[in-house]
UniProtKB/TrEMBL annotation:
<dbReference type="GO" id="GO:0016491">
    <property type="term" value="F:oxidoreductase activity"/>
</dbReference>
<dbReference type="Pfam" id="PF13561">
    <property type="entry name" value="adh_short_C2"/>
</dbReference>
<comment type="similarity">
    <text>Belongs to the short-chain dehydrogenases/reductases (SDR) family.</text>
</comment>
<keyword id="KW-0560">Oxidoreductase</keyword>
<keyword id="KW-0520">NAD</keyword>
<protein>
    <submittedName>
        <fullName>Sorbitol dehydrogenase</fullName>
    </submittedName>
</protein>
<dbReference type="InterPro" id="IPR057326">
    <property type="entry name" value="KR_dom"/>
</dbReference>
<dbReference type="InterPro" id="IPR002347">
    <property type="entry name" value="SDR_fam"/>
</dbReference>
<feature type="domain" description="Ketoreductase">
    <location>
        <begin position="13"/>
        <end position="192"/>
    </location>
</feature>
<dbReference type="InterPro" id="IPR036291">
    <property type="entry name" value="NAD(P)-bd_dom_sf"/>
</dbReference>
Length: 265
């Protein structure tokens, strides 16, 4: 029940949010809890998991589990831990990702491989493993893949990251058309620029490659958003609740732009 004693849109559902210990992932976890779900935040950073659980302050309704999406044994262990604690998985938010940027002539093979390993391969095999668990449960499920506006367009300093997020959109479409036969609805979200602590690192990289003062790039991208500001983690929670709930039952294989008007498709 929510604070008003009414059943939420996700009442008694079990959700896993990868990369759930901070930022957008944690905001989505909080929103799911408020809508009556039990939530597992799965993250590679054990310290961040503890901090995230403390912030959620949800008692037995929330759990943390360490997850390395690049390791299939870790994925299997995460699923086993969640099923042991909560009995099933009804919702997966595939949010874990990494970011890097360089001019094309400076992209290293290590950076390229690492971004695809986490953002594409890790996302896919997490989706596959959880979808198998959902099929075994026999009641369908909902999977939400986090893409980005970077998956909708090229950007000169972010070629590899853009390619990984475009791949997420493509995988969302293909997996959705296959898994809907099993009652599993797959969709995606494409955030725009989001004001998180990571933007200090991003801004520093832009300052280096574009010869700008620190802080200028962040200010510029925020002002360029039609709504007039960068996104905040909580701006993505409503769309994530919608795609996980019965309200979106007839929506399949779509990636919803949540970006303040930055991109139209």
């Amino acid at each position: 029940m929510n604070a008003q004693g009414m059943a939420g849109k996700l009442q008694d559902q079990v959700a896993v949010v990868t990369g759930g210990a901070r930022g957008i992932g944690l905001a989505i976890a909080q929103a799911y809890l408020q809508q009556g779900a039990r939530v597992a935040i799965a993250d590679i950073d054990a310290t961040a998991i503890d901090e995230g659980l403390a912030e959620l302050d949800a008692g037995e309704a929330a759990m943390g589990v360490r997850l390395d999406v690049c390791c299939r044994d870790s994925i299997a262990g995460m699923i086993s831990a969640v099923e042991q604690r909560f009995g099933a998985i009804d919702i997966l938010v595939n949010n874990a990702a990494i970011f890097d940027m360089q001019p094309v002539l400076e992209v290293s093979e290590a950076s390229f491989d690492r971004q695809f390993a986490v953002n594409v391969k890790g996302l896919f095999f997490t989706l596959q493993a959880v979808a198998r668990a959902m099929v075994e449960q026999g009641k369908g499920g909902r999977i939400i893949n986090m893409s980005s506006q970077a998956g909708r367009r090229g950007e000169p300093l972010v070629s590899t990251y853009c390619a990984t997020k475009a791949a997420v959109i493509s995988l969302t479409q293909s997996c959705a058309l296959d898994l809907i036969k099993q009652g599993i609805r797959v969709n995606g979200l494409a955030p725009g620029v989001v004001d998180t602590p990571m933007w200090a690192e991003v801004d520093a990289l832009f300052a280096r490659y574009e010869n700008r003062p620190l802080g200028e790039k962040k200010r510029m991208v925020g002002e360029a958003v039609p709504i007039g500001r960068m996104g905040r983690p909580q701006d993505y929670a409503g769309a994530a609740v919608f795609l996980a709930s019965d309200d979106s039952d007839y929506i399949v294989a779509q990636t919803l732009n949540v970006d303040g008007g930055n991109w139209m498709s």
